[in-house]
Amino acid sequence: MKHNEQEIKVLKDEINQMWRLVISQLEKSRQALLNNNVELAFEIVSMEKRVNAFELKIESNCENYIALYSPVAIDLRLVLSIMKISITLERIGDFADGIARHVIERDCSNVDKKLVEELEIEKMFDILINMITDSFVALNSENTKTSGRILAKDEEVNTIYHKSFQRLDEYLQKNPQEILCGLKLMLLIRKMERIGDHCSNIVEEIVFYIEAKVLKHKGKMEQIE
Amino acid sequence: MIETKNIDFYYGNFQALKNINMKIGANTVTAFIGPSGCGKSTFLRLFNRMNDLIDDTRMEGQCIVDGKDIYNKSINIDELRKKVGMVFQKPNPFPKSIFENVAYGLKVNNMGDRRFIAQRVEESLKSAVLWDEVKDKLNKSALELSGGQQQRLCIARALAVAPSIILMDEPASALDPISTSKIEELIHQLKQQYTIVIVTHNMQQAARVSDTTGFFMLGELIEYNNTKKIFLNPDNEATQNYITGRFG
Fold first, then answer.
1. Cβ–Cβ of B244/A74 closer than 8 Å?
2. pLDDT by residue for chain B (248 residues), tens digit each?
3. Which pTM does this prediction carry?
4. Which residue of B has its CA nearest to A72?
C-alpha cells in the first residue's frame, strides 16, 4: 500500500470509529428515553465529549491530507465527504446528547406511556438507527444502491413528525396540566426529525464521493433513480 | 485551431503514438499529462514539426493548424515555426545580450527596421512580464539572468515573432516555486492572445493552468476532457489511478 493510500485508510478508520460511537449514542438515547434510564443518559452526556474530539481530529487530519497530498478526483471527493460527514455526525451526537439531557431533567418521567406509543417515538428511533447504520455500510462498501432506500426512510420520519403535532394537540387539550411536558416532547421529536435530515445529508456526501453527483437542493430521489 | 486525425508516430520500429485524434481550441491552455515515455512530448513536437529534426522517425495521419495540414509538402517550415513558437524544459538563451535574444527571430526573418524591432522587443518583454526587471540592462548578457528570468526571456523570444500558438515542454520543471508561479501566471495572461499547449509532469500545475487536459499512456490518448472534470471525476479508471498517484 502506498503512503497516501495508508493516510486515506487512517481517515476512513477514524470516521468509522466516530460513526460507530454516534450509532451507539443514538441507540443508548433510545433506551434511556424509553426506559427512563437516567444512569444511561449520564453515560451519553459523558461520551459526547469523545464525539466532539473525533470531529476536531478528523477535521485536522483532512486539512493535513489536503495540504500534504493535494488529492484529486476520488481521493479529493472522499476527503471532502469525510470532513462533511464528521460535522454531520457531531450534530447527530449533539441531538443524542439533547435527548439524554431530557431524560436527566426528568420533566416528563411520568408521561403517559400510551402517548409515547401514539407519537411513534420508538418507531422513529428504529428508523433513524437503521438510516445511520445503512449509510455506514454504504460508505464502507462504496455502494450507493441503498441510498434511495435511506432517503425514503427520511420521508417516513417526516410523516411521523408531522402526525405528532395533531396527536399532541389532542392530548394537551385534554390534559392542559401537561403543557410543559408536551412542549418538551415536541422539541424532542423535532430533534429526531433533524437527525433524519442529517442522515440524508450523509447519504448525499456518500453519493458525491462514489458517483461524483451532487444531490443537494435537487430532487434527491429523482437523482438517485 | 489545432486538429489531429489518426496520428501514428514511429521512432524506427517503435510506435510512440497510436491513433491520436484531438481538437484544441483557440485561446485555450491545453495540458498533456502522463507517465514518462507515454508520448506527450512527441505529440507536442508534431505541432511545429520539431520531430522532423530527429532521424529515423515517421508520422502517419494529419495534423491541421489553422485549417492547413502542416505535413503537406507545400508548407514552409520556417513560417510554421514562426506561427507555432516553442519553449523548452531548460531555459536556453543564446549567449548574447537580453535585447539580442528577443530580437533574434525578428532579425533572422528580416521582420522590420531597427525601430520596429526595438518596439517589438519591449512589447515581448512586457508580455513575458520581464520588462520591469531588465529594462535597464538590455545590453547585459542573457546568461546573467536567473533561471526563472531566462525562461521568461525565452518566452519573450518566442512571442517576438508574433506566433498564434505557443508550445511549452515542461517550462517550469527546472525552476524554483516563485519562478514557477510567475510562469504559471504568465501562461494565464498569455491565454488571452495565444493558444497554449503545455506538457507537464506536475499534475497540480496542469490543474492550475489549463482549460483542457489530455492524459496519455503508452502512446495512447486515454482521456481528453475539461480539466475540472479530469481532476474531480475522470471518466477513465486509468486516468484516475494516474492522477491519484496509484501508478505512474
1. yes
2. 899 999 999 999 999 999 999 999 999 999 999 999 999 999 999 999 999 999 999 999 999 999 999 999 999 999 999 999 999 989 999 999 999 999 999 999 888 899 999 999 999 999 999 999 999 999 999 999 999 999 999 999 999 999 999 999 999 988 888 888 988 998 998 999 999 999 999 999 999 999 999 999 999 999 999 999 999 999 999 999 999 988 75
3. 0.81
4. B231
Strand ranges (DSSP E) for A84-202? Answer: none
Q: What topology is assigned to B2-94+163-243 in CATH? A: Rossmann fold (3.40.50)
* CATH number, domain A3-224: 1.20.58.220
Q: Collapsing DSSP states into helix, strand and coil, what is residue B33?
A: strand
Nearest chain B Cα distance for residue A75, angstroms: 7
**Does the beta-carbon distance from A73 to B203 stay under 8 Å?**
no
Give me the residues paired with residue B7 across strands. B20
Nearest C-alpha in A relative to B230: A73
Domain boundaries, chain B: 2-94+163-243
Q: CA nearest A67: which of A123, A7, A113, A126?
A: A7
Backbone angles phi, psi at A50, to 5 degrees: -70, -40
Residue A176 makes CB contacts below 8 A (sequence gap 6+) with: none
Query: Where along chain A do its domains lie?
Result: 3-224
How far is the C-alpha of B212 from the C-alpha of B210, rounded, in Å? 6
